[in-house]
Amino acid sequence: MKNYDLIVVGAGALGTFHSYFALKKGLKVLLVEKDNAPNEATVRNFGQIIPSGMDLNRWHQYGREAMDIYKALQQEADISVRNNGSTYLASSALELQVLQEMQAIHEGNGYTSQLLTQAQCQKRFPNIQRDYCVGGLLFPQEITVEPRQMIHRLIEHLTHTYNLDYRPLTTIKDCDIRNNQCVLQDTRGEHYMAPKAIVCSGRDVKLLFPDVFSKSGMRLSKLHMMATEPLPEVQMPGSVLTGLSIRHYESFQSCPSFAELQNTPYHNEALKKYGIHILFKQATDGSIIIGDSHEYVPVDQAETLDFGLNMYINELILTEAQRIMHLPNWKISRYWAGFYSKHPDEVFEYNIEDKIFITTGIGGKGMTTSAGYAKHHVEEILG
C-alpha cells in the first residue's frame, strides 16, 4: 500500500489545481486520472479566463485570483498563458447600455475595464461585420490559455518541479475510510492511502459514489464547438464575446438594464432554444475556435444527451458567427462536443467524515475559477 498526505482523483483543472496548492504546502500528493490524459471539459473549451463574466460574488473574486495564479505559473513554465484581454461586443443600444452599466460597476470594485466605440472595436477586430457592432467593453488584464496544451503542461511542471506523483490510466473503483484513513483501490487491485482525499470526477458520476451523485441535483451540459483552419492573416486578439454572451454570463445580472435585455426577443428563437451565444478565440496556430450551445439534462439522465454532433446546431452557430464576423474563408477543420456537470449552488461539495471531499459540478466557469476556488478549498480542507 502506497501512502500519501493527499490523494486527488481526477486531473482536470479542478483536480490539478487542488493538487498544486497541496504541493505548495509541502505535502506528498498523488493525482490519479482514469484516462491517458485529461480529455474532458478542461481541454474542450475556449481557454478563456474571464472573471468579467462571473457572478459578482466569490466567483468573480476566484476568477481574479486565478488570473494571478495562471500568470505566476507562466513565470515558472510555459503553460500557454497569454495576456491579451477580453472584449464584449454590443449589437444594440440596449446591449451597449448594459456594458456601460457593467463598466461603472467594475470601476467601483477596482476591476479595470474600458468602453470602446464602434470605431475602436473595428480597429481592434478588423473582421467585425460593420452592421453588427455598436460598441464594446474591453478587460485588458484578462488572459487566455491554449486548452489542448495548458493542463498537460501544468501537470508536467508539477511533476518535475513540485514532485507530484501523477498516475494516468489509473481508474479508482473504490474509495472509503478505514482506521481513520482514506483507502483507494484502482482497477488493477493496487491500494493507496492518505489522511484525506479529494474527488474531482467531472461528469463521471457512476464509478465512485453513484448514490451521492444521483441525489446531488447536478445537471449535465452538452456544448457544440468548432474550429476553423488556421487563418494567420486574421487579427482577433484575446477572448471575443458577443451580444448574446451579455445575456448568458452571470455578472451582467447585476446591471439595472439586464432584465429589459433578458426580456427582449432573440432575433432567432432557435438560438435561445439551444442556449447558443457566440464566442471567438484565436489559437496560437491562427485557427479560430467558435461556439457554443448548451443543452441540459439531470446528471442521472446523461444517456439522453446524444453523444453525436447535431449539425443543425452547428449550422445555427456558424450562421450567427458569420453575422458577426467576416473571415477570408469559413473552412472548419474540426467539430466537437464538450460536456460538463453543473450544480444549482455553483459547485457541488460533499464531505464524508471530514476525510473524503467530493468537489465537482463547477459548470462552465472551471477554466476561469478553478485555480482561485481550489486555493481556498485546499485551505479549508488542510488548514
Note down, in words, how this protein is organized.
It is built from eleven helices and 21 strands. With 383 residues, it is α/β, with parallel strands linked by helices. It has two domains: 1-82 and 143-216 and 345-383, FAD/NAD(P)-binding domain (3-Layer(bba) Sandwich); 86-140 and 219-342, D-Amino Acid Oxidase, subunit A, domain 2 (D-Amino Acid Oxidase, Chain A, domain 2). The strands form four sheets. Strands 5, 6, 7, 14, 15, 16, 17, 18 and 19 form a nine-stranded mixed β-sheet that branches. A six-stranded mixed β-sheet has the order 9-3-2-13-21-20, covered by helices on one side. A four-stranded mixed β-sheet has the order 1-12-11-10, with no helix packed on it. Helix 1 (13-24) packs parallel to helix 5 (150-161) and helix 1 (13-24) packs across helix 11.
Task: Tell me briefly what this model is.
This protein has 383 residues and is of the alpha/beta class.
Could you list some keywords that capture this structure?
alpha/beta, 2 domains, 9-stranded mixed beta sheet, 21 strands, globular
Count of strand segments: 21
Kindly report the CATH topology of the largest domain: FAD/NAD(P)-binding domain
The number of helical segments is: 11
The CATH architecture of the largest domain can be named as 3-Layer(bba) Sandwich
